[in-house]
Amino acid sequence: MTVHDIRAFNRFYTNVIGALDYSRHLYAPYTLTESRVLYELAHSPRTDAADLRTELSLDAGYLSRILNKFEQDGLIERTASRQDPRRRRVTLTARGRETGKLLEERANESVGALLSTVPVAERPRLAEAMTAVRTILSDRRPPRREDVLLREPAPGDLGWIVQRNAALYAAEYGWNTDYEGLVARIVADFAEDHDPHLERVWIAELDGRPVGCVMCVRDEAPATARLRLLLVEPDARGLGIGDRLVTAVIDFARGVGYRDLVLWTNDVLSAARRIYQRHGFVLAAEKPHRSFGKDLTGQDWRLDLHGTAE
Fold first, then answer.
1. Is residue 125 one of the residues assigned to a domain?
2. Which of 3, 23, 67, 251 shows its CA 20 to 30 Å from the CA of 216?
């Protein structure tokens, strides 16, 4: 491998991506950089201008002009952070979310068109090669919080949620397959019948692989959402992924008009409990029970969404 080899690959890759970006006016009426800002806002529900500037390596003045344009177009709202008044929190409006979703759909269609030219038998080899490039070049530094992407589930991700919940809880707490059955029913119910305006799943992705998840679904109680199946892979812990996933649920639930957010957990899940407490959840009730092959204490936690706005 030589410098020439890497530069040749870079020219080839840039030409391919350039064709994807511009041959179909992919980001119209926005530029590529503006679309990258929209994409980052759509996948990081609590973002401020400083975060965006660092993540996208943008000049402060240039980013400010982009955000001013977005605000004029009704795509974003900017408010002062309660934790640090010097920082400005940037969130997408309903129109901004719709615009971001449209741009992402166009990108998916464009990449899908490119992928359709690759023979099916060659696709696994292409995926392995792309993974190898990412892995080799990223192994020189430890993962960072900004490397984690929150996104909607892709085909196969719901099955991953079931498999990883079952495997991790068996390994870490000795729970039996009863828990896998519970998770499978929860995921199946969501997959078969959910309202995308009121219910959602987030996948945390790091280096191209899922490392965490959480769900927000409607509860039986009026105006109440339920947080379910929060999980972070052991090798991805310490990056604030659990906090980001819970934050995403809270922001989404508040944004679509729920009054309360509830969850059920067990007292042995101490790390998750600390996350819930940091975000203002209050213990509402607890009760001993025998489930998943263990004697446990179940806990109901509640968050008043009107009382925790930032």
1. no
2. 67
Q: Around Cβ 91, how many Cβ atoms within 10 Å?
A: 18
Q: How far apart are CA 109 and CA 15, in angstroms?
A: 18
Q: Are residues 102 and 159 in the same domain?
A: no
CATH of the domain at 271: 3.40.630.30
Note whether 178 and 101 are same-domain residues. no
User: Quick check: helix, strand or coil at residue 205?
Assistant: strand
How distant, in Å, are the alpha carbons of 32, 96, 100, 256 from that of 29?
10, 13, 12, 27
Task: Write out the chain's pLDDT in tens, 310 residues.
Answer: 677 777 777 777 767 666 555 444 666 677 778 888 888 887 765 577 777 777 777 777 888 888 899 899 998 888 776 666 666 778 888 888 888 888 778 777 777 777 888 888 887 788 778 777 777 776 556 677 677 889 999 889 999 999 999 999 999 999 999 999 999 999 999 999 999 999 999 999 988 889 999 999 999 999 999 999 999 999 888 899 999 999 999 999 999 999 999 999 999 999 999 999 999 999 999 999 999 999 999 999 999 998 654 4
Which residues, 6 or more positions from 262, have their beta carbon under 8 angstroms from its beta carbon? 219, 221, 224, 225, 226, 227, 284, 300, 301, 302, 303
Give the separation between CA 25 and CA 263, rounded to whole angstroms.
44
Whether 71 is covered by a domain: the verdict is: yes
Per-residue tokens: 15: 């030409």
Range of the domain at 65: 3-117
The tally of domains found in the chain comes to 2
Question: What is the helix (H) or strand (E) element at residue 49, kind and residue range?
Answer: helix 49-56
CA dist 214 and 220 (Å) reads 19
Q: Where does residue 197 rank: exposed (0-12), middle (13-18), buried (19+ CB within 10 A)?
A: exposed
157 and 280 belong to one structural domain: yes
- The radius of gyration computed from the CA coordinates of the chain, to the nearest angstrom, equals 21
